[in-house]
Design a protein that fits this description.
single chain; about 220 residues; alpha+beta; 3 domains; three-stranded mixed sheet; two-stranded antiparallel sheet; 5 helices; 5 strands
């Protein structure tokens, strides 16, 4: 997205009529107003761009506005899992020895500022940009540069695979399951895969060759 540069400069000295060219006292007053207005005006628009308009740097207030615009909540709801038998001390020690855990009641997960930015940026990209493989890979490389590599592959059979070369954190997994944030062409099925360990093989530098591990 190309955003034009905000020109916040206002030349108040042009307001002086030619009749007052020699009115030095008036010109000093207007010059002072000119410097004040330009300093305050530019500061306001610079702060607005950083804190509200620009998603990668937006603060809590700006993210709350973007949340309404993009229709994405800033808290994640975890729903109960009635179809899963949870471990516990209930009647007859139901499922005690199996050790399964399940969500028995709805809860809300709060997000950090950076996590909110990531989800909202994915949603904005999904709505505003063409979902081509190069565009999506560019988005993934920018959003998850700190976590690890992420990329998408078009299988040419109406499916696309998203690969994350790191363990997908719980907040991101819930967001991916709950919201339409991953870009894809209309009618194309998305498959998400996490590759959180290097696999044995004959690739570049014989990645993990001597260890003998296999990864899916």
């Amino acid at each position: 997205m190309n955003i034009q540069v905000i020109d916040c400069y206002a030349n108040l000295m042009r307001a002086i009529l030619w009749q007052y060219d020699n009115a030095e006292a008036l010109k000093r007053i207007i010059r002072g107003e000119h410097e004040f207005i330009n300093r305050v005006n530019c500061q306001f628009w610079n702060d607005f761009y950083r804190d509200v308009f620009n998603l990668p740097t937006a603060n809590e207030f700006g993210l709350a506005i973007w949340s309404r615009i993009l229709d994405i909540p800033l808290q994640l709801e975890v729903q109960p899992q009635p179809d899963k038998i949870a471990w516990g001390f209930g009647p007859f020690r139901k499922n005690f020895n199996n050790g399964n855990f399940a969500v028995t009641q709805a809860s809300v997960i709060g997000l950090t500022v950076q996590q909110k930015r990531t989800i909202l940026q994915m949603r904005a990209f999904n709505l505003m940009m063409k979902p081509t493989v190069p565009n999506i890979n560019l988005m993934l490389s920018r959003l998850f540069a700190a976590e690890g590599r992420a990329w998408v592959i078009d299988n040419h059979n109406m499916t696309m695979n998203y690969f994350f070369e790191f363990e997908i954190p719980s907040w991101l997994q819930i967001a991916l399951d709950s919201f339409d944030v991953l870009p894809s062409p209309a009618g194309v099925k998305i498959v998400i895969e996490s590759i959180n360990r290097p696999a044995w093989g004959f690739g570049e530098f014989r990645l993990n060759f001597d260890n003998g591990n296999f990864g899916a």
